[in-house]
Amino acid sequence: MALKPGFGKWWRMGGAAEGLLAALVIIGLVGAVTYAATRPTVRHTWDLTKRDIYTLQPQTRGVLSGLETDVHFITIMRPESGPLFSGLAEVQQKAADYVNTLLRLYEQEAGGRVTLEILDPHRDSRRVNDLVRALHLQRYNVVLVQGPERTEQIFLDALVTIDRGLEEGGATKPAELRAYHAEREITSALQSVGVTETKKVGFLTGWGGPRMDAFEMFDLGLLAEGARGQGLEPVPIPPEDVAASLADVDVAVLCGPEIDPGDRVAQALIEFVAGGGALLLAIDPTHDAPGLDRLLSEVGLVRELAVLCRSDFPTVGPDRAILTVQRFDAEHPITAPIARQGTFARMYSVGGLARDRSAPSTTSTTPLVTTSSQTFGDRFAPGERSGDWMPTAGEREGARSVAYAVQPAEGGRAVVFGGSAHLTNGFLSTQEGGRANFDLALYALNWLVERESAIEVGERPAFVSRVDLLEDELSTVHLYVLLLMPLGGAILGLLVWFARRR
Amino acid sequence: MIQRVTTLLWRELESLFFSPLAYIVLTVFLVLNGFSFVYALAASGGVVEDTVKIFLGNGPLFWVCLVAVPPLVTMRLVSEERRSGTLEVLLTAPVRDGEVVLAKFLGAMVFQGFLWAPTLLYVVVIRGYGAVPEAGQLITSYVGIAATTSLLTAVGLLFSTRTSNQIVAAVGSLTANLLLVLLPVVVLQYPYAAPLARLISRLSMFGHFNGSFSRGLIDSGVMIWYGAGTVGLLLLATRSLEARRWR
Fold first, then answer.
1. Is some CB atom of chain A closer than 8 A to the CB atom of B226?
2. A101: nearest Cα among A77, A122, A68
């Protein structure tokens, strides 16, 4: 019996509708399963790398499981363009990818307490600009760790060790990733952003020299902004009642005063440090200040009243007093990250510091930065700001320490620099100064507020296997992969074809 | 069921491995991968980890092979049977439609495994010159290739069930594969996609290789996406075969 006209059409439409419904159900199920599988709480990552660089260590898991507040990670990465053919941008990209992957693991392990936002300065320019303004960001390649009360910034340089490929004499070699220590820094930051109290950094004002709230070349605006970026609160300390104001701050900063603050201020600072306060003192060699010399002596240091100049520099004049320093203490928390990077700082009109032999042996004084041996101390007459910038008889040549970290058995910490210019805006911006100036300043502040790595998570050396083929070896590789192997495939096909014909 | 699928699988493998097209594909595939490897060696500056990453994850020719081979292998799986009329014979045999789809899928996967296997020899070649590749990175890269290939093969199989014309099946599945691979990458470049960046990046195959497979990582979320996607597409292919009854 023939079907009634029109039955076939309805039959087909019914089939199509059923098929469409089935397709929608299947797509919905795939979406639901995938969504559920990517929830941080059920997601798992297996790390098959040789050095387990993507496996969080037990200390970190402990911190994550004990998190009491929500923490938000934001990464803003943009590789720098290094010297031509140095491969620095590629290595930085690799480091950034490593950091982003590691942060995803933190998100997975934290059971919903940690969220992650990966920003691209080009694609997410509006959001990045907002963050730059709000958090006083000085540069990219940074991880922001945001807690309920404060945000900590960790720069890529502190997360990995990159051999930037710079060699003596300006020659370059390929940049290379040396070690991963992001976990230590990130876990430390996780711990510290949970703290609600904001530490105050008091800048002593009214003694001439660089100003904390100005952005001229020789002012301290960038240093204050950098401190804000680290979650610290910079406040001015007026000259009227220094002792009372010091009671409200955690760190006192006295940077390049031009007027002698006198015995009263020196005594207030001595008592402040003795009482557990921290001090950042940057004192120029051209500045005559008996009160500050007494303060220096109290923290176990003496200074050389001479401007350090380069003896190997071919020109004459004040340019000789611009030093490029690359010798950083590899052990101290302030300088260890800089030493690992192999970067340099620029210092201007800086004087040498030395340990005071009469200082108590219980006080730990660590020379942080040392000049090269081609340095001489240019002496000048009383009342003058410089000498002749040339090595003359009686002016000693040799390496000097220009920064010290001091930690007495009792009392607060101190960081002392033999000059102040390298902390000013012109030297903190990477265009004018060395890359390490900013890091040196910020790491010093962090150490002074006792925020060095709170947790010791071991670093992992990067595994780099390299194969450098000679020309004939490369030809052999080409012969194998471009000719012999495809030829093998073709011959196999011919053999199968012949076998089938028979 | 396993016995029926095994019988069908042998039939598929026989037709795949005894076809001259298979060895033309193999030869072209090895030439492309040869160039891809030479490029990776040069672009990485000899760093073995980067060589593996480019060769099995970031290189342009790698993606050409990954995207283009599944449509070439799957285009004839059902279309050819439909065109030559053997499909009706097969489907009237005491086998389920799902078993036919599964056997054809497994046959295509085994054949593509046969294509990718010789690329391991490249690693053996550079090992001879002192290179020490990370075993973990190699394993996860090949796991990534297997996962991606399974999804793209399932796409190809679905298209092959929809038409009796092999060229239409190949072009359709190639277009779908390109969309799957490139669309997330293109969309992520635009600022307006920022709110959806997280969702889109979860579907990005480039992202999966860059973020996990090429790094020595296996992410359960990524694997389940490929697994669920493959199963879903195979179910759709089965529905597509069944739909012939409605025509």
1. no
2. A77
Complex-level ipTM? 0.87
Q: Which residues of A touch B232 (CB under 8 A)?
A: 26-27, 29-30
Residue of B nearest to A27 (CA): B232
Report phi then psi at A209, rounded to 5: 80, -165
Residue pair B116/A453 in contact by the 8 Å Cβ criterion: no
Domains located in chain A, CATH noted: 58-192 (3.40.30.10), 199-448 (3.40.50.880)
Encode pLDDT of A112-152 as tens digits. 889 999 998 888 888 999 999 888 887 889 999 998 888 88
Backbone angles phi, psi at B140, to 5 degrees: -70, -30
Residue A2 has pLDDT above 50, yes or no: no
Which DSSP helix (H) or strand (E) runs through A402? strand A401-407
Closest CB to B45: pick one of A14, A123, A174.
A174
Query: Rounded to a whole number, what is the distance in Å from the CA of B246 to chain A's nearest CA?
Result: 5
Q: How far is A75 from chain B (nearest CA, A)?
A: 14
Separation of alpha carbons B238 and B232, rounded Å: 10
| Whole-number Å distance between alpha carbons of A334 and A437 | 12
CB–CB contact B220 A45 (8 Å): yes
Q: Which of residues 161-190 of B touch A (CB under 8 A)?
A: 188-190
pLDDT in tens, A263-300: 899 999 999 999 999 999 999 998 888 888 988 988 89
